[in-house]
Design a protein that fits this description.
It is a single chain. The chain is an alpha/beta fold. It has 4 domains: 4-71 and 127-245 and 342-361 and 375-407, Alpha-Beta Barrel (7-stranded beta/alpha barrel); 420-517, Families 57/38 glycoside transferase, middle domain (immunoglobulin/albumin-binding domain-like), CATH 1.20.1430.10; 539-718, Glycogen Phosphorylase B (Rossmann fold, 3-Layer(aba) Sandwich), CATH 3.40.50.2000; 728-906, Glycogen Phosphorylase B (Rossmann fold, 3-Layer(aba) Sandwich), CATH 3.40.50. The protein is 46% helix and 12% strand. Helix 6 (159-177) links the parallel strand 3 (141-146) and strand 4. Helix 1 packs across helix 3, helix 12 (309-338) crosses helix 13 (360-373) and helix 26 (761-774) crosses helix 31 (875-887). The radius of gyration is 34 Å and the shape is elongated. The two termini are 47 Å apart. Belongs to the glycosyl hydrolase 57 family.
């Protein structure tokens, strides 16, 4: 009696490598080798099982690029020629090895094997797809498709593009294999929230994910990973079983690494002299794999012994028995645990079986035969068949995941391939713009629009980024990416100009003819089909990477105060930011609608990976708001970390973009010195270039931004930071003493800020050494966190200031405000400071301030009138100003009182008025507004 099920899922895919312009393109051999070493051997195994009455089931995805190549007459002809050449080489090898007891039997084996493959290919007239379809009709296979050109979905910028890849895949499968697929392969098992809804639109029932996607789903599945889960869209996700995957997939700890199996990397294409092998490798003198491999793995070293097919066959039989026993133990345990038949899902690249693991097809043959004839208590099944068994699958939500290195996306985004995404995403946005703005009327324009879509989709194939990561055929991957983007750019220019070069278009259609039935409408947003009318209440969408309670620097406080005062001005304000553990993903605070997006930890331990993922999730959140009926008049982006999301919203919804630049990478580092700094600098420039208005907080920042980014003056607006009027009150010392920060009677000298190099705390420590000698009753309190905290703590220890200086780390706003009131002096010795909002807050609290004469601090403080200034980085100058205030109480009080009067010009109400004026510059009465359109779409759903 069966206790459970085993679902073998094979994914057959190759990138689109059709080159009609020449017949010796090296990469086309990927197809010939896969047909010869994998697809034909698998078909022979499956047909043999069927012929012998073995009851077996498995699922096989055939990706659209592979299906198109297998059905292509030109490639069928070239594959047949390749098989004839292998048969000829086999005859020659049989002759060459006569008398060699080790290699002659192997030469005969290969000759017979390739003759059999050639004869099989001739018998089916090169139509392998039809043979797979016959097995499906017999109930042995479930054929399903893969997404589009095999893009890594989490790195596509637009939902519309995902939809187009899915629709293209379904249409291709139906055209080439005769029926609509029920399952789909997400390339690299790359899942991203929201794609399940698009799959449901296409009537897809199931897909596969890696095990950690289901293991970390919320709420946790009560059935673990041995049952599919349903997403909220009602699509089933089957989790890859880690145990069976490790046993088959790993070349080190799995079966394929057994020493008696054939060694893949030793081939006569490299071993034999050129005179012998030259006619059977590349005509340009490039050595390559022929498929004739005479050695077994032997061990980890370079020494290899001759291959023995009988030994390998015995190992395959033993491994099949072991694999089946392991699966039987699994299903028994899971059946006992959950009281229902579990399913062990084992997805693999089909090319593993036969190409990489020579004995792989033999292993599958023996596995299914043992499962059938031994009447094992685990049965094979397809995912669709398993879904029919039960109706109460757990409903869970999953986060972004893949089966790649580290489980997320660093294979397809790292230093070797990251350059492709700005280029591809720019084309993605441009095509979205074209399909919404231009309705082709002529057949030539329709063809050009469809071909532009093909070129975009081909450039988005995950294969190119993967090849760049693995460092195999890198030059080809780079060439293909650039070719498709160049063709897309030329087509887009033709479409814009309504001038199609029909002769060139026909040439490109012949080169890149994938998806002949591609419909550009697949790329359109479903809610952007008709003109829209402006609504009544103004609304702004703010993007920021930090927002309370996440407070890293002054940006968080700035956006918090600005957003709530805009609400008081009558604006509807939505802030989209990063999630904070323990806080809701959506809430309304003081009238501000806050949306916190879940962002994965940096994969690959690269900060710019995290920024990429941040923008992806911010954009997804904003699109969800649009789809739910929210609508906006303007997008306001705060700093470079949200640049890509802001630009995406501008392009997608034709919204005016306002950017506030709070600081520049050039200013923070006194120049651009490293590759990372160059990347950040580029993103800052792109944000200021795309923004219709750029807000800065001081005249100093205006000059800096103009110089660094070469912005026109009329594009910029200077609006200072502000202070909360709640701080405009006399010190409330009766509300609490200085404990635990200082003892009663100690004179507090306070610094508040992020502990980074440019804040100048090293200068403050140097001055403190001399001040303490004269004023030992001073207590120096350093409030804030940052990468320099431990460095400066060690420096204070070295200077003998351990008892006089307290590094508090992060403290609450209430404690910070209390310290601002308790302090005798607040010191801000920054080397670089765009504004310095905390200096204003100290002035509002009635505390005397000493600041560096730099940046925005120089605009805030008028020396000897409302505070004192010191030369940046000059400890002696800083020491002099601090001692002046400590030793002249009357002057200190006069400056503090003048400062309290001065800060009224930095009232947030005034700043909100100025910001509103900037928004209104962007919102003309006739401006396109997505609100009515999105609302109508929402009502129709």
């Amino acid at each position: 009696m069966s206790h459970g099920y085993f679902a073998l899922v094979l994914h057959a895919h190759l990138p689109y490598v059709r080159h009609p312009e020449r017949d010796d393109v090296l990469e086309e051999r990927w197809l010939y080798e896969a047909v010869t070493e994998c697809y034909i051997p698998l078909l022979q195994v499956f047909q043999g099982l069927q012929r012998d009455g073995v009851d077996f089931r498995l699922a096989l995805s055939i990706s659209p690029p592979l299906a198109a190549m297998l059905a292509d007459p030109l490639l069928q002809k070239r594959t047949a020629a390749h098989l004839e050449q292998l048969v000829e080489l086999g005859e020659r090898e049989v002759e060459r090895t006569v008398g060699d007891a080790s290699f002659h039997p192997l030469a005969r084996m290969y000759r017979d094997r390739f003759q059999g493959a050639r004869d099989f290919y001739q018998e089916v007239q090169g139509d392998l797809l039809q043979e797979f379809c016959r097995l499906e009709a017999a109930g042995r296979l479930e054929l399903f498709t893969a997404v589009g050109t095999h893009p890594f979905l989490p790195y596509l910028l637009r939902e519309e593009t995902m939809r187009a890849h899915i629709q293209a895949a379904v249409a291709s499968h139906e055209r080439l294999l005769g029926r609509r697929p029920r399952g789909i392969w997400l390339p690299e098992c790359g899942f991203v929230p929201g794609v399940d809804r698009l799959l449901r639109e296409a009537d897809i029932q199931w897909f596969c994910v890696d095990s950690h996607a289901v293991a970390a789903a919320a709420p946790p599945s009560r059935l673990g990973t041995t049952s599919p889960i349903l997403t909220s869209a009602g699509v089933a996700a089957f989790a890859r079983d880690p145990q069976s995957s490790e046993q088959v997939w790993s070349s080190r700890t799995g079966y394929p690494g057994d020493y008696d199996y054939r060694e893949y990397y030793r081939d006569i294409g490299y071993d034999l002299d050129w005179e012998t092998i030259g006619s059977y490798v590349h005509p340009e003198g490039i050595r390559l794999h022929t498929g004739f491999k005479y050695y077994r793995i032997t061990g980890y070293g370079a020494h290899k012994e001759p291959y023995n097919p009988e030994w390998a066959r015995e190992k395959a039989a033993g491994h099949a028995r072991h694999f089946l026993a392991e699966r039987q133990a699994q299903v028994r345990a899971e059946r006992q645990k959950h009281g229902r038949h579990p399913v062990i899902t084992a997805p693999f690249d089909a090319e593993l079986f036969g190409h990489w693991w020579f004995e792989g097809p033999l292993f599958l043959d023996m596995l299914f035969r043992q499962m059938h004839f031994d009447q094992a208590d685990v049965k094979s099944i397809t995912p669709t068949q398993y879904l029919e068994r039960y109706t109460d699958y757990p409903v869970c939500e999953m986060e972004m995941s893949s089966w790649g290195r580290h489980g997320y996306g660093d294979v397809w985004l790292q230093g070797k391939n990251e350059w492709i995404y700005p280029v591809i995403q720019k084309a993605e946005e441009q095509f979205n713009h074209l399909v919404h703005r231009i309705e082709p009327v002529s057949s030539q324009m329709q063809r050009a629009m469809a071909q532009a879509g093909r070129e975009l989709m081909l450039a988005q194939s995950s294969d190119w980024a993967f090849i760049m990561d693995s460092q195999t055929m890198v030059e080809y991957a780079i060439k293909r990416t650039k070719q498709h983007i160049a063709r897309f750019d030329r087509l887009a220019a033709m479409i814009e100009a309504d001038a199609v070069d029909e002769e060139w278009l026909a040439q490109v259609e012949e080169l890149d003819g994938l998806f002949p039935d591609l419909n550009p409408a697949w790329f359109r947003s479903p809610w952007r089909q008709k003109p829209i009318v402006k609504g009544k209440r103004p609304s702004v969408l703010m993007l920021t990477w930090e927002y309370p309670p996440m407070t890293v620097g002054g940006l968080s406080r700035h956006v918090y105060d600005l957003s709530r005062y805009l609400v008081q001005q009558g604006w509807e304000v939505h802030v989209v930011t990063t999630e904070v553990q323990g806080y809701p993903h959506t809430e309304t605070v003081e009238g501000v609608h806050i949306h916190r997006a879940h962002v994965m930890k940096p994969f690959g331990n690269q900060f710019y990976h995290w920024v990429f993922q941040l923008n992806r999730m911010l954009l997804d959140t904003c699109r969800s708001l649009m789809a739910a009926g929210h609508c906006f008049d303007v997008v306001h982006a705060h700093d470079w970390l949200v640049s890509a999301a802001a630009q995406g919203l501008k392009e997608a919804f034709h919204l005016p973009l306002v950017a506030t630049i709070h600081a520049t990478e050039h200013g923070r580092n006194q120049g651009i010195h490293t590759e990372l700094q160059q990347r950040i600098h580029r993103l800052e420039w792109e944000l200021t270039y795309e923004a219709a208005r750029v807000i800065v907080c001081s005249r100093h920042m205006e000059r800096e931004v103009q110089d660094v980014f070469q912005l026109p003056t009329d594009k910029m607006r200077v609006i200072p930071n502000g202070v909360d009027p709640a701080l405009l009150q006399p010190p409330s010392l009766n509300e609490g003493g200085p404990e635990p920060f200082a003892r009663s009677g100690e004179r507090i000298i306070l610094f508040v800020g992020r502990l980074v190099r440019e804040k100048g705390v090293s200068t403050l420590l140097e001055a403190a050494v001399e001040v303490v000698k004269v004023h030992p009753d001073t207590k120096w309190i350093i409030v804030g966190k940052g990468p320099m905290k431990e460095v400066w703590e060690a420096e204070a220890q070295r200077l003998g200031l351990a008892e006089k200086i307290l590094f508090t780390g992060f403290i609450s706003d209430a404690d910070r405000n209390r310290l601002l009131q308790l302090a005798e002096i607040a010191v801000f010795p920054s080397w670089y400071e765009p504004f310095g909002i905390v200096a204003l807050e100290a002035m509002a609290a009635g505390t005397s301030v000493v600041v560096s004469d730099t940046g925005g601090l120089a605009d805030v403080v008028d020396h000897d009138k409302n505070g004192l200034k010191a030369y940046p980085g000059d400890a002696t100058s800083l020491l002099r100003q601090i001692r002046t205030l400590l030793e002249d109480g009357g002057k200190s009080r006069r400056l503090a009182e003048a400062a309290r009067e001065h800060i009224y010009r930095f009232d947030w109400k005034r700043i909100a008025d100025q910001t509103t004026a900037v928004y209104q510059e962007m919102i003309a009465p006739e401006a396109i507004d997505v609100r009515e359109e999105v609302a109508a779409h929402h009502e129709s759903r």
